[in-house]
């Protein structure tokens, strides 16, 4: 005696075929869809590159300004350091150092203040100032003397007449403008440097 057909056997064969076709389509479609969502088109890549370029263009001037600001601070500190060393020399020997050349921190003047081997000008072998070898952006001593972070030797003026006046000193009326000699300062020692950036001049000194 035959048993009655089950519910599954009574299911519509057309519907089962449609479901199978749908599953096959989904299985074939989903992997390629996922791959497409992961990758970048050429246009998207170009847009990303353009955005990065714009951000770099905006950040580079700010970074350059920050570096110049740090160099200015270093130069200011070094100029004051030289003045302090010269003042200490005067306190030790009762006179200003006999600089030669008299207008900048050349090697002989550095040796007078920073070493123990200048028996003529520093017989007590006192180290009044410690300096390091020159590094770009940091300053220091090289074959020309004691230099600022841009590689310029520091200029110096001494009140050798003991009138507490420095004559014909540099000044700058506007930041980035011309640096001119001609002003008088009520100072005993002055140290300065001038650097140029993008066509602008900047005066860094020990007295402002």
Give a short overview.
This protein is of the alpha+beta class. It is built from four helices and seven strands; from the N terminus they run ααααβββββββ.
Question: If you had to describe this structure to a student in words, what would you say it looks like?
Answer:
- The protein is an alpha+beta fold and 208 residues long.
- It has a domain at 77-205.
- It is built from four helices and seven strands; from the N terminus they run H-H-H-H-E-E-E-E-E-E-E.
- A three-stranded antiparallel sheet has the order 3-6-7, covered by helices on one side. A two-stranded antiparallel ribbon has the order 1-2. A two-stranded antiparallel sheet has the order 4-5.
- The longest helix is centred in the first third of the chain and has 52 residues, at 42-93.
- The protein is elongated, with a radius of gyration of 38 Å.
- The model has no long low-confidence stretch (mean pLDDT 85).
Note the gap between the termini. 118 Å
Percentage of residues assigned to helices: 40-55%
Order of helices and strands: HHHHEEEEEEE
Strand order in the sheet with the most strands: 3-6-7
Q: How is the main sheet built?
A: 3 strands, antiparallel
Stretches where pLDDT is under 50 for at least 5 consecutive residues are none
Round the mean pLDDT to the nearest integer and report it: 85
Helices, by number, come to: 4
Shape: elongated
Strand segment count: 7
